[in-house]
């Protein structure tokens, strides 16, 4: 393929191929260093960015980073590429594409129409030339609307997942955390439990409990137990009240093998969940999770940088019309994203790339105790992501997930974003909240003993 | 808020260790709850970043013979960024070990992600476990700094041990910052897969596994492993009745 080199500051830089240009153009992060792919110096990084800026977008159609023959994610990307949608930008270089994305010509309708014409690698490439503010400015312009019982992605709103995990899957404990979250107006995107014991009977018990609670108060939201896709298929066959199918996915076939998942499995699960027709406002029935570093951690990265692979995971997601996609950005640990700066950058990249590819992109704004990060970093990232119009963010009681042992956002944080930035919950959920007396017409939390008392009728 | 509602929330708090019913100041955490969270996080960070007091640990291990080694990670920052370095010995360290007579079982204590856990529990678990391994030849105790689980493979091979019991500080949570894990590896050598180990998790004093329970399980697994000549998934089912699980590898691994 083409020659990848440039002259910069009297020094000549040469890159072996497109994969090396992409990796070395990536803002620094520990995972790329661990993989031995990171630029050797800051100047080399800029040199790679300069080479990347001058590459035509079409280069990504011509030089596939992971071979078509050996990787089903590559085949999905290539086979589903919409040349007609791509036409308006097909003459651009990556650098010109960045300028155009930032311009007023790239408005909401244009970007929505463009999404099927973009490959994940093109989107990853342009993100590498963008500063954090650029990522926010473009992501903010993009509207992606999805629905099940609630409608997500509308202007002026931000959704939330209520995550009431318990280390022993104790039903009373989970109900307690759920009621606490509802009292903070959290849960419009999904009430989703990560089970401590991942098996079918546990998942069915949890699903029934959540469905009873939802039905009791007629809450316009959806529930999910985050169990493996094959379990969800089995649970559907056994007739349990399953709203959304969950699955973690990655950007290479080998990494998906590590998760025990294939595209055909996802297709089967998608069709099974659609057949239930449980959605009232829409029929987006999939919930995916991703995160930079997952391919490297399963030794399935093919020498590609972790941010590019993350964008490729979004190609998997978009094939199944998800309700929500969540990048669990700081969960994987400091060997992939070392500190608050790297986590913040990655969170913005992921939401930008996901939205540009047409996905309902949200984020688990989170970190582990061995990362160089704290709640102040999460405050920054959540505020930026709300401005980037993320579809939803995750809230756990007091920001402390006692089952998964990491820190996310608190229910309070979701309330802060809505109150301080003038954002509301999904419209169906908002109507329910006001009907219950939990929030005012303007969306502010109310100190209303009656509402709280009504919720507590369901308490164990 | 009425007293009835307050009482109900108080009752709910009993149903879960989660941080619920915290109250709010506007949309923010009340000062007290905010400081309690900061305290828990500070304790967890200190557990990750404080260095192990090697002299104190060696005193706790007395009268056992101790050999100190370090991993290839030169400092804590490198250790956190480069898990691969924490899995192998620094240059020249193996020479301290390979002059020893071979043994059935070697104990290795690795700081992992919580020096607090190692400082508090490792010596006690080592003494209790060794006391239950009568009849076996036990090598010296090796303390490995900036170390992850797989460093036990190289240490065990250098010592000529048939099996390594490696105690390691687990990634601290906000509630428990000093949880110790134990990994057993039969026929340790570099390149051993994680699926070839058995793991005990959550050895600590806040509702976790006690020293005696942990020692009992370590001894049972050790004898079973030496008899059947394996550790890992092949040993799981038969020890299931003891509540021993091959827990998913924590990132102290």
For this entry, give a set of tags.
heterodimer, A: 460 residues, alpha/beta, TIM Barrel, five-stranded parallel beta sheet, 22 helices, 15 strands, 46% helix, B: 253 residues, Rossmann fold, 9 helices, elongated, bacterial microcompartment (chain A), EutB (chain A), cobalt (chain A), lyase (chain A), Aldolase_TIM (chain A)
CATH class of chain B: Alpha Beta
CATH superfamily of the domain at 146-456 in chain A: Aldolase class I
What proportion strand of chain B?
Answer: 15-25%
Structural class of chain A: alpha/beta
Indicate the CATH class of the domain at 146-456 in chain A: Alpha Beta
**CATH fold type of chain B:** Rossmann fold
Q: Please state roughly what percent of the residues of chain A sit in beta strands, choosing from under 5%, 5-15%, 15-25%, 25-35%, 35-45% or over 45%.
A: 5-15%
**Helix proportion of chain B:** 25-40%
Named CATH topology of the domain at 146-456 in chain A:
TIM Barrel
**Helical segment count of chain A:** 22
What's the overall geometry of chain A? globular
Q: How large, in whole angstroms, is the Cα Rg of chain A?
A: 22 Å
Oligomer: heterodimer
Q: Can you tell me the CATH architecture of chain B? A: 3-Layer(aba) Sandwich
Average pLDDT figure of chain A: 96
Helix content of chain A: 40-55%
């Amino acid at each position: 393929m083409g020659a990848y080199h440039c002259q910069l500051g009297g020094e000549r830089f040469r890159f072996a191929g497109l994969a090396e240009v992409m990796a070395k153009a990536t803002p620094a992060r520990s995972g790329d260093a661990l993989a031995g792919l990171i630029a050797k110096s800051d100047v080399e990084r800029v040199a790679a960015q300069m080479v990347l800026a001058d590459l035509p977008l079409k280069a990504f159609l011509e030089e596939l980073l992971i071979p078509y023959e050996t990787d089903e994610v590559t085949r999905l990307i290539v086979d589903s590429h919409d040349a007609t949608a791509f036409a308006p930008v097909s003459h651009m270089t990556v650098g010109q594409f960045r300028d155009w994305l930032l311009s007023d010509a790239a408005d909401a309708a244009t970007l929505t129409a463009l999404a099927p014409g973009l490959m994940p690698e093109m989107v990853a490439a342009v993100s590498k030339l963008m500063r954090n503010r650029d990522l926010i400015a473009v992501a903010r312009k993009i509207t992606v609307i999805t629905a099940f019982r609630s409608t997500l992605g509308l202007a002026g709103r931000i959704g939330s997942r209520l995550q009431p995990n318990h280390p022993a899957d104790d039903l009373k404990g989970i109900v307690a955390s759920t009621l606490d979250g509802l009292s903070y107006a959290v849960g419009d995107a999904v009430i989703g439990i990560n089970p401590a014991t991942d098996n079918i009977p546990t998942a069915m018990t949890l699903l029934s409990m959540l469905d009873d609670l939802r039905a009791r108060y007629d809450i316009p939201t959806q529930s999910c137990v985050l169990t493996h896709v094959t379990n969800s298929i089995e649970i559907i066959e056994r007739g349990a009240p399953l709203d959304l199918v969950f699955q973690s996915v990655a950007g290479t076939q080998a990494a998906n093998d590590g998760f025990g998942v294939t595209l055909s499995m996802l297709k089967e699960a998608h069709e099974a969940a659609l057949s239930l027709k449980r959605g009232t406002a829409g029929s987006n029935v999939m919930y995916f999770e991703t995160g930079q570093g997952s391919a490297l951690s399963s030794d399935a990265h093919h020498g590609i940088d972790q941010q590019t692979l993350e964008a490729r995971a979004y190609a998997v997601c978009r094939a199944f019309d998800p309700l929500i996609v969540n990048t669990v950005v700081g969960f994987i640990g400091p060997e992939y994203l070392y500190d608050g700066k790297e986590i913040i950058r990655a969170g913005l990249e992921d939401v930008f790339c996901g939205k540009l590819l047409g996905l309902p992109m949200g984020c688990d704004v989170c970190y582990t105790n061995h990362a160089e990060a704290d709640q102040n970093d999460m405050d920054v990232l959540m505020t930026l992501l709300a401005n980037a119009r993320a579809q939803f963010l995750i809230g756990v009681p007091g920001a402390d997930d006692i089952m998964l042992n990491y820190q996310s956002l608190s229910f309070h944080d979701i309330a802060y974003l809505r109150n301080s930035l003038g954002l509301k919950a999904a419209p169906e959920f908002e109507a329910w909240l006001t009907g219950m007396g939990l929030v005012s017409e303007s969306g502010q939390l109310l100190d209303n003993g009656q509402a709280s008392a009504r919720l507590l009728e369901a308490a164990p | 808020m009425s007293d009835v509602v307050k009482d109900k929330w108080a009752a709910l708090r009993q149903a879960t260790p989660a941080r619920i019913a915290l109250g709010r100041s506007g949309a923010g955490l009340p000062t007290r709850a905010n400081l309690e969270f900061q305290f828990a996080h500070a304790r967890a960070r200190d557990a990750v970043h404080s260095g192990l007091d090697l002299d104190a640990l060696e005193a706790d291990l007395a009268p056992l013979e101790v050999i100190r080694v370090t991993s290839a990670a030169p400092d804590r920052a490198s250790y956190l960024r480069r898990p691969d370095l924490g899995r192998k010995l620094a240059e020249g360290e193996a020479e301290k070990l390979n002059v020893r007579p071979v043994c059935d079982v070697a104990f290795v204590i690795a700081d992992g992600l919580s020096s607090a856990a190692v400082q508090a529990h490792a010596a006690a678990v080592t003494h209790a476990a060794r006391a239950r391994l009568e009849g076996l030849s036990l090598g010296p105790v090796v303390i490995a700094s900036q170390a992850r689980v797989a460093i036990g493979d190289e240490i065990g091979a250098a010592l000529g041990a048939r099996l390594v019991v490696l105690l390691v500080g687990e990634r601290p949570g906000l509630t428990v910052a000093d949880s110790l894990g134990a990994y057993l590896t039969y026929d340790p050598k570099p390149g051993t897969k994680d699926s070839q180990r058995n793991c005990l998790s959550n050895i600590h004093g806040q509702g976790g596994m006690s020293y005696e329970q942990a020692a009992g399980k370590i001894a049972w697994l050790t004898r079973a492993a030496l008899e059947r000549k394996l550790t890992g998934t092949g040993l799981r089912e038969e020890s299931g009745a003891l509540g021993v699980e091959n827990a998913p590898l924590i990132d102290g691994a």
